[in-house]
Amino acid sequence: xxxxxxxxxxxxxxxxxxxxxxxxxxxxxxxxxxxxxxxxxxxxxxxxxxxxxxxxxxxxxxxxxxxxxxxxxxxxxxxxxxxxxxxxxxxxxxxxxxxxxxxxxxxxxxxxxxxxxxxxxxxxxxxxxxxxxxxxxxxxxxxxxxxxxxxxxxxxxxxxxxxxxxxxxxxxxxxxxxxxxxxxxxxxxxxxxxxxxxxxxxxxxxx
Amino acid sequence: xxxxxxxxxxxxxxxxxxxxxxxxxxxxxxxxxxxxxxxxxxxxxxxxxxxxxxxxxxxxxxxxxxxxxxxxxxxxxxxxxxxxxxxxxxxxxxxxxxxxxxxxxxxxxxxxxxxxxxxxxxxxxxxxxxxxxxxxxxxxxxxxxxxxxxxxxxxxxxxxxxxxxxxxxxxxxxx
Lengths: 207, 175
Prior knowledge:
The structure holds two protein chains of two kinds. Chain A is α+β, with helices and mostly antiparallel strands.
């Protein structure tokens, strides 16, 4: 099991504890940002920005957890919690005026959306496209294969007769381009996609 | 609230680390169960996680005044994520759908999976170089690894993907 890095963190924590216990070292204070030096009117904006950045990282982290990307989740969590303690927590306490509360809530909401947007821009991993076309299946398959995508064709029955069902496994980043090409050839094609995990094989792996 | 002041300052980072690992692994498990639609489990985990949060983590948060405690906190937060994911993978609750695309050995793979007691649906299809088989096979998540091993033994070139499913109606499941 690849859990080397969490164990590594635990070891560092233990070693630091030993230094303090037996070496007589002084504990250095946690560096925190002194937001209180800022003029009061900037506080709502600051709360908004900090809450946004915190929630952006948190949302991306959630999405990496769901995709099972352990190392990325670990690194994001490390970064997020350090940022929270040193920067964000310092200003979140003063929610006594309504403007700050609004900034807090909207930063929280905006961070969620921003995190999702960033994740779909980065778009790691692959996805399975299922394309159903009533009569232009051949052309679609040729077009996709010409670009080195692996395509498996199935025949299906629709209301008006035989249809083509095509399965193709492509990088998430390339969805937009592939969709545009499909639409150019057959604007009536029915396209769905779903996240799948690759266990083995695949056209790109073989060639 | 826990009285963390009674603990020797040297052990504080460790205590914080472990409290945060426990809290975050429960949280990660909860998120993963919510996504899979396991309502009772998500409820139980949510209950314990928030209780732990109120009792332990709030007292931890007021004790982050030195750098080592911060290392313990951030490290525990990050490690808890990974631990939660590992536990969920180990528990492997639920069902998976395996899709196998094999150019030559489709029927042999289907045969071997059936021998192991799973149900397989074979669909003929076309690939770039001629006829291929698409095999659809739904198994319990903890059986995925064994099925994949038997596929790889027969056809190492097969294209195999797996996805989480929620069974809606019947189906043939090996216990």
